[in-house]
Amino acid sequence: MTRGRADIVVELPAIRHNVALLRQHAGVPVMTVVKADGYGHGLAPAGQAAREGGATWLGVATIDEALALRAAGDTGRVLCWLTVPGEDHAAAIEADVDVTVYSRAELAEVVAAAAGRAARVQVKVDTGLSRGGAPRGEWEELFRRCADEERAGRIRVTGVWSHFACSDEPDHPANDAQQAAFDDALALAAAAGLSPEVRHLSNSAAALLRPAARYDLVRLGLASYGLDPAPGRSPDLRTAHRPGLLPAMGAVARLAMVKRVAAGESVSYGHTWTADRPTTLGLVPVGYADGVPRHAGNRAEVLVRGKRRPVRGRVCMDQFVVDLGDDHAEPGDEAWLFGTGLLGEPTAQEWAEWCDTISYEIVSRIGGRFRRGWVDESTRGSNA
Ligand SMILES: *Cc1c(COP(=O)(O)O)cnc(C)c1O
């Protein structure tokens, strides 16, 4: 495969595999969450691969993301869940997107936008995350209004849902409390006369760690891309016959320069690292403007010529420096920042640990001047 200066390589078969594996493991239908450009993997290609892997639903944050899926040809069920007053609900309804309401005001906006089309609406209840969703004191009234609108034929309530705060910590008491609150909300919805098609509470970590919270649907983001939402805690989905989750994204750049420095020479802005012996440095031509965290300075590693090479000094806007020791390397050599880990390269999870963050942030922020390409069975061996 011809590599450019810097490439993000997305393996679509890995996404398909992960979605199918998770679907089988969860035992309920799956919504693959493709918000934020498919966590950096590409909204439309990730969405299509997820459908092929068996995702019944795709989930996005914004109406714009939902409409972009439709523009790319997706015709399946799509849910969006984050709007501000005045957004184009009519476009979403027209495009057969299920929209989420958190409040009576939002419900009124959707009803007005529906103009008789029986908008598909899901109600999000806040069970303890204290982020989006209707607060507990408003559930009863919101459900009652929804039921009124449904009886009048102006909407169809297709879902009631909520979101965990601590699902990556399975023993955290908030999980039980949130699930109990969710059950209360479902009872109130039923009492109001609603019979939602899907009730859903679990993201990736909960789907893996809390089987009792799967209800009718699980919303899977991170795990669909092959990353572990609860590192060290998630079940291993591998069997003798099939691999477990496969990271779908690789990031690779080609060395721009290789040079020898003497003992005592210092590297990059602020001279935060000094060679204690003569060594060879490689210049990696991506930086924080391309989503390589500045926190990676003097912490992260990349794979060059089969070996892990430490980052020396600060990560700059466009470039950073790695230590090749006394090994031979040449400009143009590949430096793998992260990938599956199967060839010795770091994983996005390792980058997350080096940079005091989570792998979600590593993959969703990498980009900038990387060229992104999608690899599939049919394109393997050609340009990504
Ligand atoms: C992003 C998001 C998800 C997916 O979470 P993961 O931890 O990536 O599985 C699920 N539901 C909602 C509401 C989200 O915003």
UniProtKB/TrEMBL annotation:
Residues 248-375 form the Alanine racemase C-terminal domain. The active site is at K35, Y269. The modification N6-(pyridoxal phosphate)lysine is found at K35. It is an enzyme of class 5 (isomerase). It comes from the Bacteria. Keywords: Isomerase, Pyridoxal phosphate. InterPro entries: Ala_racemase, Ala_racemase/Decarboxylase_C, Ala_racemase_C, Ala_racemase_N, Ala_racemase_pyridoxalP-BS, PLP-binding_barrel. Its EC number is 5.1.1.1. This is Alanine racemase. Pathway: Amino-acid biosynthesis; D-alanine biosynthesis; D-alanine from L-alanine: step 1/1. The lineage of its organism: Bacteria, Bacillati, Actinomycetota, Actinomycetes, Propionibacteriales. One of its GO terms (molecular function) is alanine racemase activity. It catalyses: L-alanine = D-alanine. The keyword rRNA processing does not apply. Substrate binds at R131, M317. Belongs to the alanine racemase family. The keyword Glycoprotein does not apply. SMART domains: Ala_racemase_C. It comes from Nocardioides aestuarii. CDD domains: PLPDE_III_AR (cd00430). Its cofactor is pyridoxal 5'-phosphate. Transmembrane segments: none annotated. PANTHER family: ALANINE RACEMASE (PTHR30511), ALANINE RACEMASE, CATABOLIC-RELATED (PTHR30511:SF0). Catalyzes the interconversion of L-alanine and D-alanine. May also act on other amino acids.
